[in-house]
Every structure is written in structure tokens, then in C-alpha cells.
Amino acid sequence: MRPIIAPSVLASDFANLQSEVEMLNNSQADWLHIDIMDGRFVPNISFGFPVMEAIKRHAQKPMDVHLMIVEPELYIERFRDAGADTISVHIEACTHLHRTVQQIKATGAKAGIAVNPHTSVQLLEDVIADVDMVCLMSVNPGFGGQKFIENTYRKIENLKNLIIQRNSQALIEIDGGVNQDNAPLLLEKGADALVAGSFVFSSPDPLQTIADLKAVK
Ligand SMILES: O=C(CO)[C@@H](O)[C@H](O)COP(=O)(O)O
Ligand SMILES: [Co+2]
């Protein structure tokens, strides 16, 4: 199976957001990855609802929204209204994770759980059957352009085993430092979806870079 490619709009040129989104529409990207940072869960602030709605007005592909915010349960419906197709919340930010997953699904969005590099995937044991996706962070969240953490390969294996054991349909998404060099092994270990920000938008030809990632086996 060819990977799902989800370029992260965080790395795009915000002064030319419409043309960046149109480039993604014309590319082989499957999803638009939307990074929401609140300056509390992570030490950075990205953008909020008005920008997301502006992206949605031009996007012709599903929006994969990665919430790096505390108390995400307060904003799930608003992110859905702003155009989210998948909403991922961090396990580290949710006291009542099971409830928040049900809340996301009740909006009609797909539910994802994002997991920081230090967090064991075993903590997902009792919720994995309920989710559509697990977003494994392969950098510490908060910034684009960071170095990929190698331990991610082992975590994919552990997560894949858990998904099989629990008869879950969850997709495995890898987020942070993804490039053409690490993509083959990520897919071999069991990744389904690859987020790529700086690798795509800093490349001389983003359309070709996305096509090259899509072609990785
Ligand atoms: O969630 C995050 C960072 O917190 C990511 O989605 C990054 O935005 C991916 O960017 P690169 O590491 O590919 O530059
Ligand atoms: Co992200």
C-alpha cells in the first residue's frame, strides 16, 4: 500500500497561504496536516480558527488537525466547525481521554491520539480499539524542522503489535523530521501516514518532493 502523505501547512509560506494550499490541491498529498499550538502544551503558538477556516475555504483535501493544546475537550466542536476531518488530541493533555475520543467521534470527525516521544504506546491499550489513528510524534512537539528521533521505529513496532492484539483499525501516523531517507523504514515498520513539513516546503520543488514521498515503498 502506498503511504498517506500529509504535508504540514505549518512549514508553508503564511503570506501566500492560498497559493500554498492550491499547490497541495494539485499535488499527490492525501491530507493537509494542520498544527495547532497554544503556547501552553507546547512552547510555541501557531494559528487558530480564522487561519484554519481560511485554509478550509481553498482546501480540496481532508484536514488532519493535530491539537497541541491543553484542555482540547473545550474546543473539539469548534475545530470540527472550522473544517477538521480528523482531530488528534495528545494523550498527555487529556485527563478523560476515552470521553474526549467519544466527543470527537460524536462530531462526525475521525478521532486520533497523538503520543509524545517519551510516552509509551502501551498506555493506549484500553482505548486503541476506539480510535481511527495514532499520531506518533517523532520529535518533541512545538516546532517544525527538528531532527527525527530514532526510537520511533521501535515504537511503531510496539504500536503495530498492540493494534493487532486489540483488533483495532487505527492508522499509524508519523509526525516530525520525516524525509526521503527515513520514510522507507518507517513504512516497513508499519507506518500508514507520513507528515512532512520542512522537508516538503523547504525543497526546491514541493510537488515533486510530495510525489517522491508518495512513491516510497
Ligand atoms: O506537530 C508537529 C510539530 O510539533 C509537526 O507536524 C511538524 O510541523 C512537522 O514538521 P517537520 O518536522 O516535518 O518539519
Ligand atoms: Co503535527
Automatic annotation (TrEMBL):
Substrate binds at residues 8, 66, 142-145, 175-177, 197-198. GO terms for molecular function: D-ribulose-phosphate 3-epimerase activity; metal ion binding. The keyword Zinc-finger does not apply. A divalent metal cation binds at residues 33, 35, 66, 175. It catalyses: D-ribulose 5-phosphate = D-xylulose 5-phosphate. InterPro entries: Aldolase_TIM, Ribul_P_3_epim, Ribul_P_3_epim-like, RibuloseP-bd_barrel. Its EC number is 5.1.3.1. Its cofactor is Zn(2+); Co(2+); Mn(2+); a divalent metal cation. It is an enzyme of class 5 (isomerase). The active site is at residues 35, 175. Catalyzes the reversible epimerization of D-ribulose 5-phosphate to D-xylulose 5-phosphate. HAMAP family: RPE. PANTHER family: RIBULOSE-5-PHOSPHATE-3-EPIMERASE. This is Ribulose-phosphate 3-epimerase. The gene is rpe.
